[in-house]
């Protein structure tokens, strides 16, 4: 068998080299990206079907499909269902002069936090699980769903949360919901019914926590986060009777809630008769050790543990869970029924099947390896291109925080990066009243290949040297 195969015709050879240590998929992605950047493939050009390209390169069709999906997610390719994949209209060759104003440059490399590797979604396994659910679900399963969620899924989720998150998970206290976002709304409505008027949030923190609580008519108090997580003394000084926390990997600083703070916040909740809402959004991905167990395991009567498959499978599925303190579970299910009469059953059955068969665990292991490689690429790229930038919050999750040299102007860097098609996200977006510390960027790496990470960081390094600072 030849070690090198080419395709796309003599005028545009795409090579894969089987003797190279670089995985075939990475080689193919890189070759296509370079062809677009160099202008050899132009906006609107049609690509061969995945079947043809796979045959010509003697690789699997799945590999080509994944590669196209990744380049689609990065903005190089456009996919219209039912027709050929083409080079995206917005994909510009490197160095080509745009006739439009520079502010309209599309984002080519986006360090947006919160986006997982969209090309890793296990399409075939999910499709098979959905097909099996459709075939085998009894007719009764197709009526209005159980507002708590499918019992088999709840059993599987409870077992998973006990094993992987150290949670005290009883399936009777679980409600399947449309992602964390809905779980938070259900919990806050229930707490509002119970007389809670004030909710504390982390500062800096996820703007959606603040926005959702405000939308539901609650008073929101920001509480500072330091290098050990939320400041529990400052929390105790508020009149909040609930707090929304991201203990496993604080959003966005990336700090892990220190053991003494975990105990302190649980003691605060007991003394205040308060509820902790634990947002477990990317806890499956811990790199230096086993994931730290959920705070919920310490105090199941005080903590609601909310999670979803948005990082482990895909945000588009809108599947999550709320594991509530026992006395709140029925009220959460009642609000779920009023909100949308229950989550889609076929998807619940498909997830139950992935959990029960061990394929969900296998997929998580695959993702951990993939994200660990991307995280290493980020560390490596900074070491190489910008050693004066300190990276923190790397123990877990899909983003880290870059501490820029003192005096650097967060906004000027973000703006300059945008003109070079790189999406950056300033820490100031997440700050409420916490005084600005050193200038920082929140760098999501989940949906960027190692090559894109390296290229993006070299552009940032360049900007740091050419963008005026605040002094
Ligand atoms: C802090 C935080 N919580 C939760 C989520 C997940 O939300 P959902 O499950 O509604 O997709 C995200 C997604 O990026 C997040 O950043």
TrEMBL record:
Pfam families assigned: Aminotran_1_2 (PF00155), GntR (PF00392)
GO molecular function, one term: DNA binding
Comp. bias intervals (Basic and acidic residues): 14-23
Region Disordered: start-end pairs: 1-23
CDD domains with a match to the protein in the record: AAT_like, WHTH_GntR
Domain of life: Bacteria
Gene3D superfamilies linked to this entry: Type I PLP-dependent aspartate aminotransferase-like (Major domain), Winged helix-like DNA-binding domain superfamily/Winged helix DNA-binding domain
Keywords associated with the record: Aminotransferase, DNA-binding, Pyridoxal phosphate, Transcription, Transcription regulation, Transferase
Domain HTH gntR-type: 22-90
SMART domains the UniProt entry points to: HTH_GNTR
Family of this protein: In the C-terminal section; belongs to the class-I pyridoxal-phosphate-dependent aminotransferase family.
Protein known as: GntR family transcriptional regulator / MocR family aminotransferase
